[in-house]
């Protein structure tokens, strides 16, 4: 999800200035400074990368799905505050007003939420098939991977990813709904 | 030991502040009071785990014996739950303001249906109102609480 | 493998909630998922009940280590006869409310994720009944409460918003207090596992546990559970929240969620603290009188309040305050008799078993009768748009089936044989009588309170019945239900009136088919009450098993068999206790799979 967002951010680089102008024009009484816009442009990708990093290492180091998701949502809040909601929805997520605008975005977040919940619960129930208790976790170490070396494949990551999607979906739904008030 | 004393004093202060805010007339202050009290409960939990020792995570078996990790896990859970409930309470306050035009509990009490239940028409109005509540706010809160459940 | 049955009710509720969330694109699919899920929940509970209570060789206790962690390091689910009884009490209410919801919740309610929330609430209730960990109990309380906040608040009219705000704020404060109490218990006993805590409290010297702080912390917990159960000093959220919530939600709140508070009192104060003693006096001596006070005040205040209400919903809400008093009273009576307070291992006295049995049978009665009455009231509201006495009357002639159901529910509250309510009341009276015989202090006062409460129950139930169902049909009833329901099959009845009083919302949105289903649910619950009353012996046997499980601390500890982390274990520097607690997936994640025994 956040990877998409980063990709969308890059592809939209060309018409970003125009979009920004439009967002500022369209937003009611929002006047943000050049400094704030520039800083956000630099900071948001960093936040997103950090969030993904926290998510990936969360199963046995400090971090995890929840905190990664909160960081991701923070990146969205920054974009939302500085560039306005229309920019966030139209250019950042690629949802045009013709698709339903705000409503479509919230609908999209909700699916994210439900899918995350299903993933987290599903990862917990998967061990039941093997006759193991709910939420039992396993870990697999892959050795001699080219370039990467040793890689740790933990089933807990699926649960973390589910938590991540749930929290991102939930927070963005709140943001979208309250923001459109 | 001094750390314990400082934390005990902080806890007392936080609980006092929270209680003071909960007793105010302004609903927003009440919500702040509740969230301060629940944060104070979290600090209390951390204090209960003991304050000596190193970080319990990230340094497996290195250096000083780690402090009790269990309370930290509990507090993480409690923070997440508190996050969801505080957000719900704030949006609820917003809805109260939207519907009644005030967040003063005394002014709100005037419009309390329980106090006017002798009036036969109350129930009718209540049923009518069900169908013109602002939909957007409600959807928001509902979603938010879902999040809270699982986080 | 068979161990999975312990977690089955929770998994069914969780899956149903998520599937209902995923099925939100189509209202009918969502309703179907909700119905199937409720049915599956009932099946799972029945299977668990069968495995625990009806096991060959008497009731047993099943444990389940989530994520394959052993107690006390991991979270364990413990299904003993008490948990199974409480789940069996919840299942019929859940099914009835789910069926009722499918026909009564409108489009808008469905868009607000009514069905997923409903099943999340069921998940929270089941988790609270099954968990064997104090902090986990808090988490399941929160899951249950968060869903109930939304269900109470966002389907109600604007007039109820402010009143229901009190419900949210009070419960948030209670949650914070519960957290403080749990933190204190952890610091004092060094564990969160209920069985481990019971073991340490029963033998404080061996584990270096100070018992005195647990008395205060227990009082804190007791007040939190009293909030959930809605007994007197904390009762004020009950009427406003019950009026604000839609009928099926109120049914679950009154029928099941309140019982979670009662269950928590029984589980913690009988099973966990039951073996503890301070200054050679059992903890019972400190808790019992408080429970008696709460119960007595609830019985009187609830009864008087209900007798003075001018609408069905208000009457039922106040009535449930009084009825919870009747549930708590035998618990208090069992705790205050001298035999229980002076004997150190006084938990499993005959009277304690009798008191818990009485509380459980009464809980079951109330769990069936009160949802029945609330659903009947909801049906009246959806047909007539109001439940005010002033506008109702003569409904018995229009809806004999609904009236019959309501009457049976009312009689269950009063306690008329052969309805189950009779046996509930009989056991409560017997507990108090035997308590007096055993020298319970202020026994006469308790008996007098109970009698007054019983008389008040008869008074308000009669008044409600007279106002709503007897007499001549009022103008409103004649207008909206011109002929008897059922006489003209699906024609006429509700639709005839829908155009004339449209603003009421009720008649215009509810179809006749929906009303038929609603009445059917009420009648089914009423038949259940009579059926269980006829077969009361089975119910009382199951409740007695549950009471033995609740008071048998040693058996509970033995069944859970928490590993002893070592006698030198010091709570403030619990270095070794890498716990797989809820939410700390970062901690338990690296647990390698090493073959489950189940």
Automatic annotation (TrEMBL), chain A:
Keywords: Cell membrane, Membrane, Transmembrane, Transmembrane helix. Residues 35-173 form the Na+/H+ antiporter MnhB subunit-related protein domain. It is found in: Cell membrane. It is a multi-pass membrane protein. One of its GO terms (cellular component) is plasma membrane. It comes from the Archaea. It holds the Pfam family MnhB. The keyword Protease does not apply. The chain crosses the membrane at residues 34-56, 63-88, 108-141, 153-175. Its main location: membrane. PANTHER family: NA(+)/H(+) ANTIPORTER SUBUNIT B, NA(+)_H(+) ANTIPORTER SUBUNIT B. This is Multisubunit sodium/proton antiporter, MrpB subunit.
UniProtKB/TrEMBL annotation, chain B:
It is found in: Cell membrane. The keyword Ubl conjugation does not apply. Residues 140-151 have a biased composition (Basic and acidic residues). One of its GO terms (cellular component) is plasma membrane. It comes from the Archaea. Residues 111-151 are annotated as: Disordered. Pfam families: Oxidored_q2. It is a multi-pass membrane protein. Gene3D superfamilies: 1.10.287.3510. The chain crosses the membrane at residues 6-23, 30-51, 71-92. Keywords: Cell membrane, Membrane, Transmembrane, Transmembrane helix. Coiled coil: none annotated. This is Multisubunit sodium/proton antiporter, MrpC subunit. It comes from Halobaculum gomorrense.
TrEMBL record, chain C:
It is found in: Cell membrane. It is a multi-pass membrane protein. One of its GO terms (biological process) is ATP synthesis coupled electron transport. Residues 132-433 form the NADH:quinone oxidoreductase/Mrp antiporter transmembrane domain. InterPro entries: CPA3_Na-H_Antiporter_D, NADH_UbQ_OxRdtase, ND/Mrp_TM. It holds the Pfam family Proton_antipo_M. GO terms for molecular function: NADH dehydrogenase (ubiquinone) activity. GO terms for cellular component: plasma membrane. Residues 567-598 are annotated as: Disordered. Keywords: Cell membrane, Membrane, Transmembrane, Transmembrane helix. PANTHER family: NA(+)_H(+) ANTIPORTER SUBUNIT D1, NADH DEHYDROGENASE. This is Multicomponent Na+:H+ antiporter subunit D. It comes from Halobaculum gomorrense. The lineage of its organism: Archaea, Methanobacteriati, Methanobacteriota, Stenosarchaea group, Halobacteria.
């Amino acid at each position: 999800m956040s990877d998409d967002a980063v990709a969308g951010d890059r592809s939209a680089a060309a018409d970003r200035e125009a979009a920004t102008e439009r967002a500022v024009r369209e937003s009611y009484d929002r006047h943000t400074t050049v400094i704030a816009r520039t800083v956000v442009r630099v900071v948001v990708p960093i936040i997103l990368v950090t969030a993904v990093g926290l998510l990936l290492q969360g199963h046995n180091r400090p971090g995890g799905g929840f905190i990664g998701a909160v960081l991701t949502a923070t990146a969205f809040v920054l974009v939302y505050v500085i560039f306005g909601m229309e920019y966030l929805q139209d250019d950042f997520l690629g949802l045009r007003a013709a698709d339903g605008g705000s409503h479509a975005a919230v609908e999209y977040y909700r699916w994210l939420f439900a899918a995350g919940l299903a993933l987290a619960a599903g990862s917990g129930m998967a061990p039941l098939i093997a006759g193991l208790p709910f939420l039992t976790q396993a870990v697999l170490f892959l050795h001699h991977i080219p370039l990467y070396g040793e890689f740790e494949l933990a089933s807990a990551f699926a649960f973390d990813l589910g938590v991540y999607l749930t929290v991102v979906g939930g927070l963005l739904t709140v943001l979208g709904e309250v923001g459109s008030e | 030991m001094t750390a314990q004393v400082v934390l005990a004093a902080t806890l007392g202060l936080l609980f006092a502040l929270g209680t003071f805010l909960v007793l105010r007339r302004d609903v927003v202050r009440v919500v702040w009071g509740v969230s301060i009290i629940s944060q104070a409960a979290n600090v209390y939990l951390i204090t209960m785990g003991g304050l000596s020792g190193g970080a319990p995570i990230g340094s497996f078996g290195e250096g000083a014996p780690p402090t009790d990790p269990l309370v930290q896990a509990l507090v993480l859970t409690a923070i997440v739950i508190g996050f969801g409930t505080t957000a719900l309470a704030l949006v609820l306050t917003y809805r109260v303001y939207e519907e009644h035009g005030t967040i003063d509990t005394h002014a709100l009490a005037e419009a309390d249906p329980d106090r006017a239940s002798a009036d036969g028409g109350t129930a009718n109005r209540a049923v009518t109102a069900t169908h013109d509540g602002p939909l957007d706010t409600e959807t928001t809160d509902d979603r938010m609480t879902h999040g809270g459940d699982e986080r | 493998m068979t161990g999975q049955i312990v977690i089955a009710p929770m998994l069914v509720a969780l899956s149903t909630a998520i599937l209902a969330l995923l099925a939100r694109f189509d209202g009918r699919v969502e309703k179907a998922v909700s119905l199937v899920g409720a049915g599956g929940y009932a099946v799972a509970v029945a299977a668990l009940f069968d495995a625990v209570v009806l096991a060959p060789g008497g009731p047993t206790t099943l444990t389940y280590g989530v994520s394959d962690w052993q107690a006390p390091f991991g979270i364990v689910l413990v299904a003993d006869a008490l948990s199974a009884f409480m789940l069996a009490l919840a299942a019929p209410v859940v099914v009835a409310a789910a069926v009722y919801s499918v026909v009564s919740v409108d489009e808008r309610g469905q868009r607000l994720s009514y069905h997923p929330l409903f099943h999340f609430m069921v998940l929270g209730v089941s988790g609270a009944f099954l968990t064997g960990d104090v902090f986990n109990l808090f988490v399941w309380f929160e899951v249950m409460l968060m869903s109930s906040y939304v269900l109470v608040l966002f389907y109600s009219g604007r007039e109820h918003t402010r009143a229901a705000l009190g419900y949210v704020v009070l419960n948030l404060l209670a949650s914070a207090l519960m957290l403080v109490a749990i933190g204190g218990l952890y610091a004092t006993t060094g564990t969160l596992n209920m069985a481990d805590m019971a073991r340490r409290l029963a033998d404080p010297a061996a584990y270096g546990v100070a018992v005195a702080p647990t008395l205060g912390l227990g009082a804190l917990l007791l007040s939190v559970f009293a909030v959930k159960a809605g007994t007197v000093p904390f009762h004020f959220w009950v009427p406003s929240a019950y009026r604000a919530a839609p009928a099926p939600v109120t049914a679950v709140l009154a029928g099941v969620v309140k019982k979670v508070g009662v269950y928590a009192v029984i589980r913690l104060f009988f099973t966990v603290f039951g073996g503890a003693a301070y200054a050679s006096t059992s903890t019972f001596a400190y808790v019992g009188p408080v429970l008696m006070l709460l119960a007595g005040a609830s019985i009187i205040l609830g009864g008087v309040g209900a007798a003075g209400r001018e609408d069905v919903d208000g009457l039922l809400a106040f009535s449930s305050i009084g009825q919870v008093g009747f549930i708590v009273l035998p618990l208090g009576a069992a705790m205050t008799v001298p035999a229980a307070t002076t004997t150190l291992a006084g938990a499993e006295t005959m009277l304690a078993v009798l008191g818990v049995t009485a509380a459980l049978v009464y809980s079951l009665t109330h769990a069936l009768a009160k949802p029945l009455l609330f659903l009947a009231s909801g049906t009246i509201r959806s047909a007539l748009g109001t439940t005010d006495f002033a506008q109702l009357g003569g409904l018995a002639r229009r809806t004999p089936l609904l009236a019959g159901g309501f009457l049976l529910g009312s009689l269950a509250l009063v306690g008329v044989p052969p309805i189950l309510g009779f046996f509930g009341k009989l056991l409560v009276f017997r507990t108090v009588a035997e308590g007096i015989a055993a020298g319970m202090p202020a026994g006469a006062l308790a008996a007098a309170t109970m009698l007054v409460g019983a008389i008040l129950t008869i008074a308000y139930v009669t008044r409600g019945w007279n106002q709503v169902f007897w007499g001549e049909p009022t103008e409103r009833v004649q207008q909206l239900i011109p002929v008897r329901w059922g006489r003209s099959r699906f024609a006429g009845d509700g639709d005839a009136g829908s155009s004339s009083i449209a603003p009421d919302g009720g008649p215009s949105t509810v179809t006749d088919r929906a009303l038929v289903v609603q009445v059917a649910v009420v009648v089914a619950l009423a038949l259940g009450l009579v059926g269980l009353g006829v077969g009361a012996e089975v119910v009382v046997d199951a409740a007695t098993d549950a009471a033995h499980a609740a008071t048998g601390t040693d058996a509970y500890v033995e069944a859970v068999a928490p590993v002893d982390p070592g006698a030198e274990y010091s709570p403030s520097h619990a270095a070794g206790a890498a716990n797989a607690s809820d939410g700390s997936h970062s901690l338990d994640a690296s647990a390698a799979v090493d073959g489950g025994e189940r």
